[in-house]
TrEMBL record, chains A, B, C, D:
Keyword Transmembrane helix: no
Protein name: 3-deoxy-7-phosphoheptulonate synthase
Gene Ontology biological process: aromatic amino acid family biosynthetic process
GO molecular function: 3-deoxy-7-phosphoheptulonate synthase activity; aldehyde-lyase activity
Residues covered by the DAHP synthetase I/KDSA domain: 81-331
Record InterPro entries: Aldolase_TIM, Class-I_DAHP_synthase, DAHP1/KDSA, DAHP_syn_2
EC number: 2.5.1.54
Species this protein is from: Brumimicrobium glaciale
Keywords: Transferase
Length: 333, 333, 333, 333
């Protein structure tokens, strides 16, 4: 059960409610987000929901069966739209495009990418400055220096930035330069990081774990929401299976299921989802056709020279081709 | 290496070629299909391919590296189109639709389905009469009696039939009533069945194994082809993963990969691929967008009363809706 | 519910029972095996079990909840012991060893293997004459000729034979020369083959499917049992996972679970389970320690020259070493 | 290539070596651990290894092909033994037992467990105070307060403590009370945490990721080692597969493979590996038989009342039984 408090609830009304819940022997967790205040209740026994409705200062009371509470579509019928500022939205009826290199490499690279995005009317640029790499001997990103460079080039062009954060300690420093914090697949159940991201007021994109279930992804989102941040985006990026013909197995079943179970926007990363450059466009089209709210696409002026992930990165020309096809697709759905 | 013989090769030319290969110490497998005669060679050492080119009666010599030979796109650049008769094609630029119930139940059911297909211009009906069931206590199909009923209703309406065959011994009896033989996921590596299907002149649709790799699916097709039947269709139907939120995990990565590696048409079964009725339409659209050559869709007048698989079966009305959306999609690709 | 009939039930008693069940509206499947006659009932509603007990000619009535009936440990508390003849047992308290080459290659090879087995007191030899191979271009076994050779060498030395059968049509021909029919992982859900094996009176060893669940393995056994053959052995042989460091992932969890759920003996194939020769001994010891009723081990005089599976085959010397260690292990458990 | 420096290498010798490597155009990473100083070199081209041997102050030069360097068995032939202090060793020829509850709950619980351990001669107690939980609404451990309580009861009894750390920021505070830091399966690729643990001088036990490959586990160990901490233990705890009959699929293949590839000790957690109390003893025996260097076992006075993981926790009596059986097993291997 979720009790949504009125924005103007008075202190004594809130105390009354808390006492009432205690008397009814109902455990509750207060959740305060950018959007509102909620009490999440996990009553052990069935009881008459009207007993709660009597209290003053309550905006609404929702029954939510199932394990997930705040992220569930059972209480919030309207789909959540994430406002990244300056009119950049994720989850409205447009397909939000987030494109750019796997790793930020240089100012020139950023400027080239920005140009490609502007040409296609894309408002969000992706690019990693902290790179989680399986091997400690691989290139691991330019760090804060790279992020500042990234920010400067994008900010003056009205482009929003999505980039990965790897631990709680990085959040504060990154904060001024980031528009959307991305949690990578390897950190999908790094609960401390999730809770720390719950305490800030910036959108967070959660990638599904490498072999994460739908259920686990929703629980990870619940961690962030419960800690106070409602601005959440879920991302399917391919799962690990027995098949070795591609890097990951893009699981597009996840899109309609996540949209059924949750009110949060769902985006897809087809670049990681198949990991093979020449097939990314087709997988991106399928992702759009299945109802994704946005796409994360790796692009680079010269993919074969990219510091990381070149094998799955589109050239700018290929990206233009994708955008054209997506435009046609959007016209019919 | 594949040596394609001329249709009018003379007996002495063929003997010369065989002797020549023996002298060059090249092992070869003769393959005779409906379309032509081939020698598949697996030479142990590199040698000058022109030494083969000298022989008379040869139409072409193709180098084919990699494990798969006859099904590989390396020797046959044109994509294979399967002719099911009466102008019903699979693998041309149209999306071949195969729809109908999981199990054939009654004459009335078949007639209802035929009507739904005709209304939508669909030319192939699916329906099982031999049902592979995990439990021996489940309904296992109407058998030959059902197939004959199925055939009568379809034949007079110009509808082609695709149905599953479960063992070699059934082929002969089923032969007059079947237009496309389907090999189910559980029999994907039933090599005896595959070879027996190689000896007939009817199209065969191979479903990917429950946890079958891309490589294994191509090898299974190679079994049929090598035994003499080129009329092959590959089918992605979802794989088994750790995820339990859906029946199977539809692997749309498989479509572009199979089309890259093989010249055979590739179709998708989104009904089994997700296993949840309300999401089948979206998965079907994604399958079309990713480039599938056809779709297998489970439909029923009253899905909730279907003998099997009702939970993933579209009603006729939902099927109409799907066909409308697919029509729009086809216009742009 | 399983109704076990008395061996000497009279025809009129049986008719009474059948009529009684019909009147009670209880669907039932009669199962006649080498050991007895059973009615498997799947009543739709709860009813008073004593109503059945009244009938004459009944030996016992067992409530069996859950999906599996005849193979379930819920009705048969004593563990099943498979008698392969001449005192060769599987499922008693000894570890039944089945060793030999992947493929039968020659008379010399068989004789060498028999010698190695006799030396170690092993009574069952494994060896394939029909080999299911992913590629149609691989060696596929010596067929019936090889089997006859296999039989002659073993029979005169009191060694029992286990070998794989690939389709129903082979059973009759193979019958005189085989002591245990093996169903391979790729045929684990070849239901026609399973039913055909249910109609013979020889033990059947069922390998778990390549990605077969515990539940599916038990259902496959149920197919055989329901068709009339109780002489069943279950075999864990490794499953397909994401891990590519070994051929398969040996799942020893399966052993205690299968022994809990079923009364059938459970054996393990560590050779396929890890697929790496130098680690087979350790995996075999683990299999024995976890409670397996027997082991299938690939052995060869010169593994590096074996026609198939040499990379996972023990030399005779390594097999001697394994037998010594197993002997010690048996002393303490 | 790994260059092992002499403990008493002089500053100018080291400078000479560094210059020499630069001149040879060989990139190198200096690694300073508790045990020694190493230069890890990743030369792009083959070169004469003797050119390195000329330099003074070098103890040894090892060629290490393959991706993993410091954790590889290719340069360190002796197996690593972890000294936890007071003669408590992991990786010598004894089976190191680590037992105790999933979660620390109370002083009484700790004392009860200590008593059970002492009785069985077990020197390491496990117990979580920071619990990574899928759901934010689950019990998440007693935190530092619990850890201090845990330490007091164990320290006075000569029992060492292993407990999970969830993020870098916790390390400093936990440091005085922990003997072995455990990295959980969900943090197996939390590279920031791994590097932070590389900077301390306490043993670290790394659990394999929920669907982590052997390769990834070794790379994660490489992260810790490269950051300066050689005291590493690898732990197999079951992987995620399609099988739902148990919580995880214990992958005992991992034990011989990890011991082949790495010089680090390998322990097994059969409690999580199967997740079913009544089968834990058998899986523990299999783990010992396969060659594990130690076992992590969940125990509790009253498993059915445990705050977490009760379904897979042994009672003290069951633990006694396991210890007896393990003792017998150790006598023969």
């Amino acid at each position: 059960m979720i009790i949504q408090l009125k924005k103007d609830i008075q202190q004594n009304q809130r105390l009354d409610l808390e006492q009432g819940l205690n008397q009814l022997n109902i455990e509750f967790y207060p959740v305060i987000t950018q959007m509102g205040t909620y009490f999440i209740c996990t009553p052990i026994q069935e009881f008459d929901i009207r007993k709660i409705g009597y209290f003053k200062g309550i905006s609404d009371v929702h029954r939510v069966t199932g394990n997930h509470k705040m992220v569930s579509s059972k209480w919030k019928l309207d789909r959540t739209i994430i406002d990244c500022g300056d009119g950049v939205l994720i989850g409205d009826n447009n397909l939000a495009m987030m494109a750019g290199p796997c790793s930020i490499e240089s100012e020139e690279q950023i400027n080239d990418t920005v140009e490609s995005l502007l040409k296609n009317g894309v408002r969000i640029m992706r690019g990693g400055v902290y790179k989680p790499r399986t091997s400690p001997y691989s290139f691991r990103g330019l760090g804060m220096e790279g992020l500042k460079m990234f920010y400067q080039a994008c900010n003056k062009n009205g482009i929003k930035i999505i980039t990965e954060v790897m631990e709680s300690a990085q959040i504060e420093e990154m904060m001024p330069y980031v528009d959307i914090f991305q949690v990578g697949a390897r950190n999908a159940q790094n609960f401390n990081l999730l809770e720390a991201l719950g305490e800030i007021d910036k959108p967070v994109l959660l990638k599904r774990g490498i072999s994460g279930t739908i259920d686990e992804l929703l629980y990870s989102a619940e961690y962030v929401f419960k800690s106070g941040n409602e601005k959440l985006i879920l991302c399917e990026r391919g799962i690990r299976t027995f098949e070795s013909a591609y890097r990951n197995t893009l699981d597009l079943n996840a899109v309609p299921i996540l949209k059924e179970k949750s009110h949060l926007p769902v985006v897809v990363d087809p670049s990681h989802g198949i990991g093979i450059r020449k097939h990314v466009i087709q997988m991106a089209l399928a992702s759009a056709a299945v109802g994704a709210d946005g796409l994360l696409i790796e692009t680079h002026k010269t993919p074969e020279k990219a510091a990381t992930d070149g094998q799955q990165t589109l050239s700018f020309k290929e990206f233009d081709e994708l955008m054209l096809k997506l435009k046609k697709l959007k016209e019919i759905f």
